[in-house]
């Protein structure tokens, strides 16, 4: 049974994302994620200047005069949301958790896809596949995806992105646009990601919290790794420690972006302390200029 608080949260996200996915946003989505092929529409009589390679010889033979095939761009596509909801995402210092941000971000993408008559599917994973919902169309389907993202109760703590990518490759045979949403606190997934990106169009969405980039000075703090349980006592008042922490965080992001770039995977960085819609629109503009 879904409780009233969850229903309220789903409704809030629906209202917010419906406002975000306006005509301008939907148009940007459509221009960036165009159809993946050409679909036959009809035949018509040949006119001078038509490409002779499009002549339909069977119809031409029957009619006694040349006819050509006409094609239209196949607009409909499949969007897969592969979302990491492991323990490291159960963290946030500015009003919402990284996993909550991931859910809202996916909601915007799902509503944009439905507005463009695309199918949307969902994979929730930790160090195992927690849930798979096959791609479908329709607002009721999107609301189900959002409910599942918000209602998910973490039973497994660790992350296995490589396993999720292998599963995605097996259940998604038709070419799809895949949003891989994670904080990418994991290893061993670059090669599997490269293999999946050869068949699909994969966009990595790196979810972060500002405290992961710059440690605040709050004295002695005991930190526990959410996925391994390892505990460490840290003096956050130390400027040297905060500097080393910030440098290590910046290096990790640089390495992450470099790895994605090396296998031609685009990356969107979103943070819990700023409106993610700006990061998404910036990505749209960047990709539109490139293509």
Structure explained in plain terms:
This protein has 291 residues and is of the alpha/beta class. The protein has two domains: 244 residues, Rossmann fold (3-Layer(aba) Sandwich), CATH 3.40.50.410; 38 residues, no CATH class. The chain contains nine helices and ten strands. A hairpin with a 3-residue loop joins strand 4 and strand 5.
Specify the helix fraction band.
40-55%
| Tally of helical runs | 9
Q: Which architecture of the largest domain would the CATH scheme give at its second level? A: 3-Layer(aba) Sandwich
What is the CATH homologous superfamily assignment of the largest domain? von Willebrand factor, type A domain
Strand content: 15-25%
Q: What key attributes describe this structure?
A:
Rossmann fold; 2 domains; 291 residues; two-stranded antiparallel ribbon; single chain
SSE topology sketch:
Layout: H1 4-20, H2 23-32, E1 37-45, H3 57-63, E2 67-74, E3 78-84, H4 98-115, E4 119-125, E5 129-136, H5 139-151, H6 161-171, E6 177-182, H7 190-199, E7 201-208, E8 220-224, E9 231-235, H8 239-262, E10 266-271, H9 276-290
Parallel strand pairs: 3-4, 3-6, 6-7, 7-10
Antiparallel strand pairs: 1-2, 4-5, 8-9
């Amino acid at each position: 049974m879904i409780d009233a608080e969850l229903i309220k949260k789903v409704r809030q996200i629906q209202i917010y994302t419906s406002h975000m996915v306006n005509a301008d946003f939907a148009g940007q989505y459509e221009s960036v994620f165009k159809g993946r092929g050409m679909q036959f529409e009809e035949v018509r009589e040949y006119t001078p200047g038509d490409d002779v390679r499009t002549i339909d010889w069977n119809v031409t033979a029957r009619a006694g005069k040349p006819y050509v095939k006409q094609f239209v761009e196949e607009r409909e596509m499949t969007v897969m949301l592969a979302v990491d909801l492991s323990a490291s995402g159960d963290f946030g210092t500015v009003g919402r958790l990284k996993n909550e941000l991931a859910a809202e971000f996916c909601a915007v993408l799902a509503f944009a896809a439905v507005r463009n008559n695309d199918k949307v599917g969902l994979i929730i994973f930790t160090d195992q596949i927690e849930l798979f919902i096959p791609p479908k169309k329709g607002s009721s389907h999107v609301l189900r995806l959002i409910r599942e993202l918000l209602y998910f109760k973490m039973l497994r703590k660790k992350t296995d992105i490589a396993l999720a990518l292998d599963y995605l490759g097996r259940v998604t045979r038709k070419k799809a646009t895949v949003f891989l949403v994670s904080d990418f606190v994991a290893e061993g997934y670059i090669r599997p990601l490269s293999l999946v990106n050869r068949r699909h169009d994969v966009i990595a969405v790196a979810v972060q919290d500002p405290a992961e980039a710059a440690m605040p000075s709050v004295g002695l703090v005991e930190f526990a790794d959410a996925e391994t349980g390892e505990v460490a006592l840290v003096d956050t008042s130390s400027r040297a420690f905060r500097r080393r922490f910030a440098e290590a965080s910046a290096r990790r992001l640089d390495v992450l972006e470099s790895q994605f770039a090396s296998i031609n995977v685009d990356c969107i960085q979103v943070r819990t302390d700023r409106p993610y819609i700006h990061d998404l629109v910036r990505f749209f503009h960047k990709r539109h200029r490139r293509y």
